[in-house]
Protein: Protein Wnt
Amino acid sequence: MNFSPSGIYFYLSVAVCWLTAKVDSSWWYMGSQVMCDNIPGLVNKQRQLCRQHPKVMQAIGAGMKDWISECQHQFRNHRWNCNTTGRDQNLFGRLLLRSSREVAFVYALSSAGVVYTLARACSRGELDSCSCDPTKKGSSQDAKGLFDWGGCSDHVEHAVRFSQTFVDAKEQEERDARALMHLHNNRAGRKAVKRFMTLECKCHGVSGSCSVRTCWQAMADFRRTGDHLRRRYNGAVQVAVNQYGTGFTAAHAHFKRPNKHDLVYLEDSPDYCIRDQESGSMGTGGRLCSRTSRGVDGCEVMCCGRGYDTSRVSRTFKCECKFHWCCAVRCQDCHQQVDVHTCKGHT
Structure:
């Protein structure tokens, strides 16, 4: 399978640079053209946007750690735990060369993460190209009645437009099966951020009467987006390209036809039990597991039947905490011996 970077590969490359090197802003701006010109696989549109918006690229690189952390949180107890590969060409190694359910999740979450990061940077005044949502002006109405737009509404639509223009550029040119899959999952990720926009309000009036409300639209915590996409991962639909090459049909007759919010994938996942560079599997050797759990974090499932090693370690925790007037809580350090179980490696 040929390595064919896309917009997401670019963001991952930026993340590697940002997360593993101490890059100051002056270097970033001066070096942005050189960096953009030397990233393999970008189409002209992507290179042009990369050179024109160094601050946007910096914001995305800095924010990348947030959605990577969210991915690892969502899969912390599974054989595939969204593990990264350090300074590789992209943070997930050869995993992204596949068209599996896990890749569908990575693309959707990263697309959502780009939108969330850009919209947040706009609201904080960190970018010259955007600020608060300029369409939220005047008065409006919700179930509680009239309110005035105020504060700073997150400009999600701007972030969605930039993300779609940049991230989807290569897939828009290629339009093969994998490109269609990535386009679908990128879009599902962007929609997930918009799904959890909330209206936040502040009351004004005598004695808190709330005779006047000032409201703004804000993104929910990114955890809600992560939880939503994790549920979509559980219900992801295996698909095949239709006869016209323009969309998908379910790969099996008893599967539902995917809608625009579903995640889709083309090929089955490996079992992730053993280290396999070709499939991007890091294996489960050395992973922590629960001896008593019958779920995916249990030693039988996590260790793929290979067995596990047990060691006793000492853990320190706060105990016998007491409140002292005024105003402090003082605790003692307690020690406990616990058994830790780790999967045996493949032999």
Residues 174 and 180 are 9 Å apart (CA to CA). The chain has a mean pLDDT of 85. The chain has two domains: 7-275, 288-343. The chain is about 40% helix and 20% strand.
